Amino acid sequence: MKPIIRIWKVILFIFLIYFLNSCSEKKYNSFYYILFSYLRAGWNQPEKVNNIQVYYNPSLLSIELTWDPSKDPDTNQYVEYYFIYLYYEYPQYQQFYDKKYLLDITTETRYRLYVGNFRGILYFIITAYDFGSESEISEIVQIQVL
């Protein structure tokens, strides 16, 4: 029975991501804001992502983010998905969960981003995601790329 539940969770997750990404370029109606805030808050939010470390490797022109895994309070197991948000200026409150700033979704607690010729400051927020519920935002992490 558990594999069936897991399959449904994955299907729902894919649908939710598709829905959110398809709406990212549009102005949303009030129904969307009500629905999304409910899904984000959920019944039991995962733990907030903590202990984010960021490293810049100038020889590889890459940034590596690492963090501690978050737990789902319902099952006391580690969360499977993490949303990584990227900002080129310090994010405002309205931008925290805006999917147009979503860089990637990962199942690891480590992420590498190649920056190429970019020079400046990058800001990151990471959230844990578990079946329709997104955690509170992590601390805003910044790194200066030289």
Question: Short summary of the structure?
Answer:
By secondary structure, this protein is an alpha+beta fold. It contains 2 helices and 8 strands; from the N terminus they run ααββββββββ.
Structure description:
With 146 residues, the protein is of the alpha+beta class. The chain contains 2 helices and 8 strands; from the N terminus they run ααββββββββ. The model has no long low-confidence stretch (mean pLDDT 83). The longest helix is centred in the N-terminal third of the chain and has 21 residues, at 2-22. It has helices at 2-22, 30-41, and strands at residues 53-57, 62-66, 81-87, 102-106, 110-114, 120-130, 133-134, 141-145. It starts with a helix and ends with a strand. β6 (120-130) and β7 form a beta hairpin.
